[in-house]
Amino acid sequence: MINKNSGILKNLVLVLPLTCLLILVLTLNAYGEDRLINFVGNNQRLIGDLIIDSSSFNFTPADQIELEATDKEIVLEKDREYFIEIVENENDESFLTIQIIALSERSEAEVIRENLENHGFTDNRIVFEDDLYKLQSGEFDSREKAEEYREKLADSGFEGWITGEITEPYELLIRDNSGKKIYQGPDINLDDAEFYINDTWLTGDFVLNLEDDRIKLDYFIPIDMAVAGNIASLENSHNQEFRQEELELLSIFLRTNLYGNAEEIFEKISAGEIDFNKPDSRIIDSVMKTQDNYIFYDGDIAYQDDFYPAGYLRTLFHWLSVDFNEETVLNDYYPEAEILNIMEYSRLETIVDARVQRGLNYKEIREETLRGNRNITVLELDLNRSNLKVRPFLANSTVSGLEDLVEIGRSNQALAGINGGFYEYSGRPLGIYMEDGNIVTGKVRDLVRSTLLIDEYGNIDIGIRDWNGNLGLEDGRDLMVSGVNQVPEDGQAVIINKYYGEQAPQLREGAVELVVNSQGEIAGINRSHFLAPSSIPEDGYIIQATGSKANILGRLSTGETISFENRFFPEPELEGDIVHALGAGPKLIEDGRINITSYREGFQRDIVYGNAPRSAAGITGDNKLLLVTVDGRQPERSIGMTLDELAEFMLDLGAEKAMNLDGGASARMMVRGFTMNVPSSERNIGNALLILPNM
Q: CATH for 95-165?
């Protein structure tokens, strides 16, 4: 059996042994999700350090390099050889001291020095620098010792500060090939550098410094450049130019394994066992085409342990010389592996899974992504049970009310709930809203948007719905109502009911007003805008109309009957009459497929784009209602979701239909009187969707 310690693969044995090797040496990410997050956060760079065994080495810039963090401009020329070596530091004065004071008169400094000595501090000196006499005390070879001494001085009433410097006994020296000294210092910074070392081409950011008596190279190399250099080395070694498809698949394969084996690779580069060649534009373009793609297995990048065993390059070349494709590569790598975009990586963990009451469950889910974490709360209501029901409620039971979700829930004896649809600053719903068969608001600016409908039997449907009202007159004529609880516009008839408040709006000039009682009879007709606003009957309603509709209604008489009917288009396929409606949007899922209709529903960019706190409602295939909130705008805790990501999440929960609700600071969930998520800021809301006992 071949294992990860197996020896050299035989040249004549091609795909089958390679398959076994790749399966059996597969090693998943040993560092967990933090490694992936840090890797992406560092722009997908290979980061590590390498100890150079010798006290000197040579390198050749492949392009001009400007040394960083030096007092003067130093340029290392392209294609010229340079040598780096360890030399003894010529500066023999190296210590830290505590400076007590700096004075223009030496005599004054002498007085303070004498005072210091009287307190037992005898290691003092006066130094003349910058036209000042500086009184200093003590000499120390570490900052820790200097800080300890400074505190002793302070305890005796002598405040001071640490000054001076500690130089290492050795430094790094750069010479050119003529022996000329170019630079000397404790470290060398090569930012955005491209050079050859041991015939290996490298590019990225590098820092050379000393560790004990050896040179340490800290490297920060873009993984795609390392992949390109590796491919260029393969082509050069075998004198073969890979095809486009081969380049792309090879890029993914090498990127996956360079990710997990950077330390081993650089040790082999240092030892001269492998090298990278400078790639041409053809290779770089192919690598960049797949720049975020890696081979994943079970949620992690699946790299091989000991990626460069003896015979690897020869075996890989034979493998690439056969006719292969993505399916072949993945089957040879691991049967269940897949190529994924690293930016789409996520890991879900259910932190809380609890039953609120029979038929109602609550979950709190933590999602880790490479862009940040998310905190998600979910309510799942089994609509097949009759012990609970769901319905919307207005804040303060009026069209212009604002309350915290918890207060709305408590005043309506709700077990749980979520914020509802969009609303104006006053709390007025922006879109279709209906309670107990009473229409409260209609559509906004002729925009037809997603609406959650509930019929008299508790059945729920989600879809894009238009609405209007219909007045049935005694003579058989119908009159369309297009507004609710608002002042009528020109040529419009509107209905005004108890949700508006106690009194109807002041009648407009030229308008007609009908007062309709609970029996559907016209109890009064007003035609004068000089009259005081009419009282709204508790179980009836008022109709105000202008233009031609006012002319028609103005010919009616008190005592005549009039009927009002809500109409939804397209007509819902629910079993009973619609008694509740909650408009929001856009639609997220239709018939089990993602279908985001933000453009069709006329939503603005601030709702559609970007990561944000979100809320959503959905219906599953087995008739369960899903209510979801996603916290956002809290970078350290939860970054929110885009609408696309919200739709994907709802689909993963099993939603066959789903719609977006109001989000931002309004996104909040309540269970048994407590807010379960962490909203981005304090906010009262205009309406809510609540779950309560079915009594």
A: 3.30.70.1070
